[in-house]
Amino acid sequence: MKRLLSASIGLLASFCVSAQPSAPNIVIFVADDIGFADPGFRGSGIETPSIDVLAEEGVTLNRFYTTPICSPTRAALMTGRDPMRLGVAYSVLLPWDSGGVHTDEHFMPESFKAAGYQTAIVGKWHLGHSQQQFHPNARGFDYFYGHLHTEVGYYPPFSILGGRDFQLNGKSLPDPAKGKEQYETFLLADYSSDWIKQRDKDKPFFLYLPFLAPHEPLEAPDDLVKKYEGLKDERGLSRSPSDKISRLARLSGTESRRPLYAAVVDSMDQAMGRVLKTLEEEGIEDNTIVMFFSDNGASRVYGRGGGDNSPYRGGKGEVYEGGIRVASVMRWPDRIKAGSQLDETVTIMDVFPTLAAAANIKTGNELPLDGVNVLPALTENKTIHRDRALFFASEIPLYNSFGFTLIEDNWKLIQWLKIEPLTMTITQELYNLEEDPGEYNNLATKHPGRVDRMAKEILERRALYPINGTRSRISSPPGWRPPLDWASFPRKDEALQEQPATSMAPDSRSEMLLDYMHGDTGRLIYNCEPTRIPMIGGVCI
């Protein structure tokens, strides 16, 4: 009955939108690990005319925050909620992980689909692969052309751990025919363009295009590799833990990845250009919201990552600004002033409520959003108000080695937490981002009261994490074997029980007691922000 009611509501909503042809189309481009300084308009030496034109004709978001790693950013984008609550914050979803984003969570494309939009994801998913309920087609997308995992390669056979991973709506695709363009980035662009051309022109559409580019291992067409082979690597050190590996790589004679990285970024920009040209040819560019951003900062390990996050410190996997403040632009000719700059803080969690407001549709969430609608700031230059400080975390790549950060207006506290067999080390750094966005001057000793207060909030935010959420388990379980074909891997709904599992507790009362006993180490009860009771502490009720 519930599914029938939902379908009926969605059908009614589609008639409403069909009667409103002015509803904006949505296109979201996501780069995988591009640096803040890498777009051409920032003088990188990499040609990115498509990104540049979006900046020229739209708004550049100068303080756009994501999480420091992939899956958490995508989870926050799709739900508008803090990935700490979701249990997808400390690490990415790895091939041997059995979880995903809880089905109680409502995804952005579900809202647009219910409102009559056509929905498609073309590219990388990385939000669950073990069960059909985690699959893109079960989370609001009518069409899924792409791969469930990351690092599938840029040329056929598009595989992860030796298993094929390129599909259309749950069915594995054969390799492209010989003589045809096989480069993954261009395949995604061409499918996106064809999908736009073949759409129902009486209904708006929502297209999510998350590229693999420029994620390692890097590959690019020969002509682009040749184009950048003389590009010099003039990046300085990132002033972060990754510099230790970078120094060793330089001493060992490892070649810089900067030239090849530039070729991969150029190819991604060309792919974006194909889609933007299609919007123009279809006569819909003025009423299409186009957004571009990176899922996190670029990797700054010399010999492994070729991106540049300057003028910011650090990179991918780190909670310095270089890992979480990313390149982002948005164009909507009908509403956003061309060539504008936004210095207000915008986060990945804000995208869902903002696009829903722009399309004048309801988000449809039962659980409260952590993101806010920033459309007034984008279109009217109004101030953004938040009720809570921003919080980001990472545990990549070393197990029990965490980075946490809390950003409260322009004050930023960073905690490095390392747990070893017999010791635990905590290092704290405090920065004033208004005066010191490059994070050069640690003010922790000058403001101990602020550090203590913000550290306490970090502890409270950490306590929201589900106890079996993602962790940095970068090695597969002993004896685990990957499938031959990932499209056939997700377990079908009919093979699973109707309700999600809870815990080992035999009943809800036992689970509440176990949750209380675990305290601030994490939650057994999902989506619980514990109530603080004097003499007892935090209790999930």
Brief digest:
With 541 residues, the chain is an alpha/beta fold. It has helices at residues 2-18, 49-57, 70-79, 83-86, 108-114, 184-197, 222-227, 243-251, 258-281, 321-324, 351-359, 375-380, 448-462, 508-518; strands spanning 25-31, 59-61, 64-65, 118-124, 143-147, 159-160, 163-164, 167-168, 171-172, 205-210, 288-294, 325-326, 328-331, 340-342, 346-347, 390-394, 401-408, 411-419, 424-432, 531-533, 537-539. The chain has 2 domains: 2-380, Alkaline Phosphatase, subunit A (3-Layer(aba) Sandwich); 507-541, no CATH class.
In total, how many domains does the architecture comprise?
2
CATH topology of the largest domain: Alkaline Phosphatase, subunit A
By CATH, the architecture of the largest domain is named 3-Layer(aba) Sandwich
What is the tally of helical segments?
Answer: 14
- Biggest sheet character: 10 strands, mixed
Query: Largest sheet, order of strands side by side?
Result: 9-8-5-4-10-1-11-13-2-14
Distance between the termini: 29 Å
Mean pLDDT: 92
**Helix percentage range:** 25-40%
Total beta-strand segments: 21
Work out the radius of gyration. Answer: 23 Å
Structural class: alpha/beta
What's the overall geometry? globular
CATH class of the largest domain: Alpha Beta
| Assigned CATH superfamily of the largest domain | Alkaline Phosphatase, subunit A
Residue fraction in strands: 15-25%
Model regions low in confidence, pLDDT < 50 over at least 5 residues:
1-19
